[in-house]
Write a structure and sequence with these properties.
The protein is α/β, with parallel strands linked by helices. It contains 28 helices and 28 strands. Strand 25 (674-678) and strand 26 form a beta hairpin.
Length: 722
């Protein structure tokens, strides 16, 4: 057995008590269960709400132990108290649910982490406003980023904000457990959908900080062109490009060399300025061919592209089938088969614990009682007298990241105390080119890579490979989002890395995974959205539509963060490293699962209504929406006036804010979701705050990056490497 064939699960022995009714609580519990934790799915005998995770009880109960509780019965309360006293994690949603009995709140004081999932953070003035995913999209600016340039904002049907909050919550819980094991402390975690939504705006915020407005671009990208969905003769083709070399290759495929040096298209900045002309040129070529021909020719030159897959076609999508992401389970409530997602967690040749059954209500009671007898009460950790530091103190991370995904993982690891060394090619990370700039340095790049040390390393040279090997020997973690096989071609595949450092946690994040039927196909966020059902789920008036935010990119980075923290936890107990193979397509399919079975459970609908100064979002049942649209046809009203009128009539309504308004919003300021720090060129650089609010080991935001340092022997010595 090799180090990367560790048979154990990452969170073996961890007990989670899931009490909250939000979708984010259910999804967090599911991810923790897939990583090996025992999750107790507490089901109140009397539910005061039938929405949230209860609208799809089967989806969020799968793979867990169901425990039905009557909070008016002392015996049931005693069972929950006993569980809480020895649980590592307790998951709540205090703004969504009725208050729990005070004696239960006292019982969870010994948990490593009590994580409260709310819309606006448990300590905020808006605490009593249990906004839904769509309402958070509206007020945070996220909804305003999706939709076509000449149309209204389009809120995402996929509950991305709830799932983003779920994964950040799971990562924060494991970070808190690390602090418990290292320093003997316990803490609370407040995690808000609003904070996570604001963090998801990372590709739009630089435009605001550069002094311009961020508008809707349909299936385009705010910082790259050509990047769009194009009509082929028999369907849709997604094409994404972000570099000048990509444009040169596209011109080669189209057999239009005259466009390479055309002053309208020569540079990335030129193509962004002339976006419509670029799209027109590409559309004219794609329309002449079918989807398969376009993808074949574009992929042959290493260009990111793909076809749009409908939700009802996911089971037949080749790569999702290959990776076991779609299967069926029988719901004991009605005996019907239901489509379920597998787990996006994969380590080496093993996958995480994909749900094997949907438990009947209270089916886990005997198992839970037996589990208590076997394991006993954990008790509170003692104060070991050590000064408390950050959870990842003394952890060294090597990041080979580009654009969003791995850089997001590395950025958050740095906020938790890790030393993160970002390895860039001599030409630099391609995201350094993304506009707008200050003194020639991309605002987006600085925002995405705070807290790191940047090194320029030529991995194609003998010296560069030898130096990189020395870095790997000294490291605890390697995270990268290169095209699969890139490191292997340089002599650093998973097996070689294991031999260099058997304790290394190596996380590879790619569009389709290392074990993939598309292992030579590059992928950007939009292509993954297309090939995971995401764009079909968010179709507007029959046209597939991507999320304006880079949903698959940041969700890939978040799951990478969680997986690395969980694998480091396992390493502390086993001494073994891990090879983590994450597919953004797997992750995207996982978060579309609430829409796979539309006939299950009541779901609120949303409607967007125009007014004098923009749009408002109305949320409720179809009957409520019909009442809203009929009761108010007054375009002379402002967003605030219209929202007030609807809310006074008992209709949930919030204004749809722009990204610029979100930056200036009081909630953004009080939560310090963006702060300025002095850095390169003597400028003030805007950096994102962390959505993971740990009470005793809060993430630290600092150090705007500048230009990369050329790696040499002196630099290695500075890192303690000879």
């Amino acid at each position: 057995m090799t180090a990367y064939d560790d048979p154990g699960n990452w969170l073996d022995g961890v007990l989670v008590v899931e009490l909250g009714g939000r979708i984010s609580v259910g999804a967090c519990g599911s991810l923790l269960a897939q990583a090996g934790a025992t999750v107790v799915f507490v089901e109140p005998r009397i539910k005061t709400r039938n929405d949230g995770k209860w609208a799809q009880r089967a989806l969020y109960a799968a793979g867990k132990e169901s425990l039905k509780i009557d909070f008016s019965e002392p015996e049931d309360v005693a069972v929950v108290q006993s569980l809480l006293r020895r649980a590592e994690f307790v998951l709540l949603s205090s703004d969504w649910d009725d208050p729990l009995p005070s004696d239960l709140q006292e019982a969870w004081n010994g948990a490593a982490a009590v994580c409260d999932f709310t819309a606006f953070n448990a300590g905020s003035d808006e605490r009593n406003q249990p906004f839904t995913d769509a309402m958070i999209q509206a007020i945070s600016g996220v909804a305003d980023t999706s939709g076509f340039t000449d149309g209204p904002p389009v809120p995402l049907s996929v509950p991305v904000m709830e799932y983003s909050t779920a994964v950040y919550g799971a990562a924060a819980c494991v970070a808190a457990l690390t602090a418990t094991e290292r320093y003997g402390i316990t803490q609370t975690i407040d995690i808000a959908l609003y904070d996570c939504a604001f963090n998801s705006l990372s590709t739009f915020l630089p435009t605001i900080f550069g002094g311009k407005e961020a508008g809707r671009l349909g299936n385009g990208h705010s910082m790259a062109a050509p990047w769009n969905a194009y009509n082929a003769c028999d369907g849709w083709v997604l094409l994404c490009s972000s570099k000048d070399i990509h444009w040169q290759r596209i011109c080669q495929v189209m057999e239009t060399p005259e466009y390479v040096d055309d002053p309208r298209f020569r540079s990335l900045a030129d193509r962004m300025t002339n976006r419509k002309a670029v799209d027109s040129v590409v559309q004219a070529w794609i329309k002449q061919h079918d989807v398969d021909t376009c993808i074949e020719r574009l992929s042959a030159l290493d260009l990111a592209c793909g076809s749009i897959v409908r939700l009802d076609e996911l089971a037949g999508e080749a790569n999702l089938h290959h990776r076991g992401m779609i299967h069926e389970l029988i719901d004991p409530a009605d005996g019907k088969k239901t489509r379920f997602p597998g787990t996006p967690l994969r380590s080496g040749t093993r996958t995480g614990q994909k749900p094997k059954n949907i438990p009947a209500v209270d089916a886990g009671r005997n198992v839970i009682l037996s589990l208590e007898l076997q394991r006993g009460q954990r008790g509170m950790p003692s104060d070991n007298g050590k000064e408390t530091h950050m959870p990842l103190e003394d952890i060294r991370v090597i990041e080979i990241g580009q654009y969003t995904t791995a850089p997001l993982t590395g950025r958050h690891l740095a906020t938790l105390g890790a030393e993160v060394i970002k390895v860039e090619p001599p030409s630099g990370d391609a995201a350094r080119e993304w506009l707008p700039h200050k003194d020639g340095l991309s605002i987006f790049f600085v925002m995405s890579n705070s807290g790191k040390k940047c090194l320029a390393v030529d991995l194609k040279s003998e010296y560069g490979r030898a130096a990189f090997e020395k870095l790997i020997r000294s490291a605890d973690v390697l995270v990268e989002n290169l095209k699969p096989g890139s490191l292997a071609r340089l002599g650093f595949d998973a097996k070689a890395l294991e031999q260099i450092n058997p304790r290394l946690v190596y996380c590879s994040i790619s569009g389709f995974g290392n074990d993939s039927v598309y292992n030579q196909r590059p992928a950007f966020d939009t292509v993954v959205q297309a090939m995971s059902g995401f764009m079909d789920a968010n179709a507007y008036e029959g046209t597939p539509l991507k999320a304006g935010i880079s949903a698959c990119d940041f969700m890939g980075g978040e799951v990478g963060l969680f997986a690395i923290l969980a694998a480091l936890h396992r390493r502390r107990h086993s001494g073994r490293g891990q090879f983590i193979d994450l597919s953004m397509q797997d992750i995207a399919a996982w978060i579309t699962a609430p829409l796979w079975n539309p006939d299950i459970g009541p779901q609120d609908s949303v409607s967007v209504i125009g007014c004098k100064d923009g749009f408002v979002l109305v949320s409720g049942t179809p009957e409520t929406l019909d009442r809203a649209t009929k009761s108010t046809q007054t375009p002379e009203l402002s967003r605030d006036q219209l929202a007030q009128a609807f809310n006074s009539d008992g209709i949930n309504c919030v204004p749809i804010m722009s990204v610029a308004e979100s930056v200036a919003h009081e909630s953004t300021k009080t939560r310090e979701l963006v702060r300025e720090y002095s850095g390169f060129g003597g400028h003030k650089w805007p950096l994102l705050g962390s959505p993971m609010r740990l009470s005793k080991t809060p993430p630290v935001i600092a150090n705007p990056v500048g230009l990369p340092v050329q790696l040499d022997d002196d630099v290695l010595k500075e890192f303690g490497i000879s």
